[in-house]
Specification:
By secondary structure, the protein is of the alpha+beta class. The chain has a single domain, classed as 3-Layer(aba) Sandwich (Aminopeptidase), CATH 3.40.630. The protein is built from two helices and seven strands; from the N terminus they run ββββαβαββ. The radius of gyration is 14 Å and the shape is globular.
Amino acid sequence: MSSIVYRELELHEAPLLATIAFGAWDEQRLVGVGSLDASGVGGDGAVMKLDMLYVDAGYRGRGVGRRLTDMLASDARARGATGLYISATPTRRTVDAYLSMGATVLVSPIQKCWRANRTTFISC
């Protein structure tokens, strides 16, 4: 298997103007993707939202999600954010992954972003 290449994705849809996305490729195959809502949570640019993170099952546990999350957090910091809001499916593997990246579970989720059956984190 070749080394994985990471790069920013070009988004061409107008509703996504505040979205930044990065992808991970193994040769021609997209194996991971993550996106950031840079408009800020609740209109506050100090906290941006990790919109989505997906890693192909065959590539999980190999640092792809961590690298994509690091790239998104770095982009958020460059845009002035001091926090990264993450809302995730509360499976043990997902929760452990975000905790290992330094995220902490929020006791009180940000209401605008809250969804049932999710665990919410803050990181950056």
